[in-house]
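User: I need a structural model of AraC family transcriptional regulator from Hominisplanchenecus murintestinalis for a docking pre-check later this week. Nothing fancy, just the predicted structure tokens so I can convert them on my end. Input:
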Amino acid sequence: MISLCESIFDGQRRELKEHGSFSFPAACYSNTQQNHSVPWHWHDELEVLVMEKGSARIQISSLKREVKEGDGCFINAGILHSMEKIPGMDFDEHSLVFHPRLIGGSMDSIFWQKYVLPLISDRSLPGIFLEQSVPWQKEMLSLIRAAWNACSSEEGNYEIETRSSLSQCAGILRRQQPGQPGAQPEKALRQGERMKVMLAFIQQHFGETITIRQIADSAAVSESECMRCFHHTIGITPIAYLKNYRLQCAAELLETTAQPVSLIGEQCGFREMSYFARAFRQNYGCTPSQYRKASATA
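Assistant: Understood. Predicted structure tokens for AraC family transcriptional regulator:
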């Protein structure tokens, strides 16, 4: 069964949504109907994705790329990631989120030890962007589509077909994984954990007046360390992230509610409507009212 890309998070932006069931821990999702950006989050499961139409900006930890039609990506377990809608560009992405034990079985099996464990324990591998122009990546994209189609149909031996295609993906990844899994520096791991806390704080309080000091305090770090974490992990400052997140939330409210534009701006942390309108135009190429009108006729 296909689900929409709707998520619920805990205090560290860990996704709480159950993907599939205990006996078949896999679920397929489509962003066709919502066509919204997906904020920074993480989950214990692996994720594979194919962009079936249009394009969107996807960021996996510090890796960022515009994923175009026909291309996709692999996202490792426990890694922060996000998807940003490109203004004026519709997209249709199909993703499949699955627990490692779906393909690894028990932790003492050869499948877990040889294929799954080396992937999920490799902190130097947050994810991989997949392009049709690269033969082995093209093969993996085809397998992702096969897994998604089988899982979404829930027909015949779909569980076996889904597991088989995802297992072959894991085999391809292991063949392409260089040597022994590299150990990510302790500093990078520590920054990643701090980022989960600080992003959660911003996303819980974005409608309020927030300072860098408050963001830093949420993770018990200095302001300078807060700035370093944001720069090294997602490549922008805390204030720039806060502004982008506020605009993203405002755009979604403009699409999904009939609330006055001024009220939406205020709810999203913009105290001056002139600044809200100017920032929105810079990001989306139109005013909030124009964006709402265009969304209603799309």
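Before docking, keep this in mind: The radius of gyration is 20 Å.
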